[in-house]
Amino acid sequence: MSTSFSHDHVGLSVTREDLDATIEWYSGKLGFAVDQRFDSHGSTFVFIVSGDVKIELLAGAATRQAPAGDVLTSMDPSRLHHFCLAVDDLDMTVSRLRDLGVELIGGPMEVAAIGQRIAFVTDNLGNIIELAEPGTWSAGRQD
């Protein structure tokens, strides 16, 4: 018997001081909205959503990490490297984000092996977000 998985959410640790600014960044730059906010076990949990994408912000005893300045030099195998958001039009999304003051740390670039165009940005805390336009990788996947 095999186990079947589907994606539920990504969890990001933030400091209490950064929680509201992080909610504002994801709301203002990427259009996320707060779905739930509650306190439990000495921490604050906030679920933000956009379409079928859900991110859990966990504010407790987190400490700040240095933000990534370049996607190629950011690869540390001891942590989550990035999460990916699918977008319909990469160029339009990148243009909109640039208008909002969001800088790219990689791309846009074509990844021929998977037939996708991608770009990378960081949020207000330095978490890396990949933006991916549909291609043969996502079209051919069997989830």
From TrEMBL:
<feature type="domain" description="VOC">
    <location>
        <begin position="6"/>
        <end position="134"/>
    </location>
</feature>
<dbReference type="Pfam" id="PF13669">
    <property type="entry name" value="Glyoxalase_4"/>
</dbReference>
<protein>
    <recommendedName>
        <fullName>VOC domain-containing protein</fullName>
    </recommendedName>
</protein>
<dbReference type="GO" id="GO:0004493">
    <property type="term" value="F:methylmalonyl-CoA epimerase activity"/>
</dbReference>
<dbReference type="GO" id="GO:0046872">
    <property type="term" value="F:metal ion binding"/>
</dbReference>
<keyword id="KW-0479">Metal-binding</keyword>
<dbReference type="InterPro" id="IPR051785">
    <property type="entry name" value="MMCE/EMCE_epimerase"/>
</dbReference>
<dbReference type="GO" id="GO:0046491">
    <property type="term" value="P:L-methylmalonyl-CoA metabolic process"/>
</dbReference>
<dbReference type="InterPro" id="IPR037523">
    <property type="entry name" value="VOC_core"/>
</dbReference>
<dbReference type="InterPro" id="IPR029068">
    <property type="entry name" value="Glyas_Bleomycin-R_OHBP_Dase"/>
</dbReference>
